[in-house]
Amino acid sequence: xxxxxxxxxxxxxxxxxxxxxxxxxxxxxxxxxxxxxxxxxxxxxxxxxxxxxxxxxxxxxxxxxxxxxxxxxxxxxxxxxxxxxxxxxxxxxxxxxxxxxxxxxxxxxxxxxxxxxxxxxxxxxxxxxxxxxxxxxxxxxxxxxxxxxxxxxxxxxxxxxxxxxxxxxxxxxxxxxxxxxxxxxxxxxxxxxxxxxxxxxxxxxxxxxxxxxxxxxxxxxxxxxxxxxxxxxxxxxxxxxxxxxxxxxxxx
Length: 252
Fold this sequence. Notes:
Layout: H1 12-28, H2 40-47, H3 51-63, E1 67-69, E2 75-77, H4 85-106, H5 109-132, H6 136-152, H7 156-168, H8 170-180, H9 188-191, H10 193-204, H11 207-235, H12 246-249
Antiparallel strand pairs: 1-2
């Protein structure tokens, strides 16, 4: 694998930040697959650095929930537990409803400015992702928008729980974009329509509509993601099936 180009020697902090940024991008876009081993020696060779910046980057990634240290002290990209995806999506729905509702009730003028800024950034991020077929701009700006909404609700417990769910769901969002990009006519406006409705309801202070739109947004994501998983998981299953003969199916 090619090493990142470094024009100038980097200090420990700069080196760790560089490693963190690149590995994080590769994990979120699933260039590094869930469960893939991350060996410090190999990474140090790849990034042409000592092992200290590698360790520091892995600690940051572990705090993000993107890598996991196993009992034998080896490090892997955090696996995606597909069996628990429905549970995750249900929890996301619940937290999204409550955070959008509370935002409509408690947002301040300063909150609205921040939410509008992140909304516009999301629209640009989606347009960039559609154009480049790289999901990271959409993933990052989606997180920023929803967290601006959550913080406007003035409940740190809900906001912290919601942040954890959004972090865990970043790779699912990458897969979601891959599904959406199968439509050659997809537009940033269409993909951002749910966010538009949420923003409008919060601006009006309409808590019921904000909760409703938050719920619909989560349900749509759940349905499309499960459809994506169904298509791709079943597509890899071999069907060596031969219909029974007519004689075998005839009852006496």
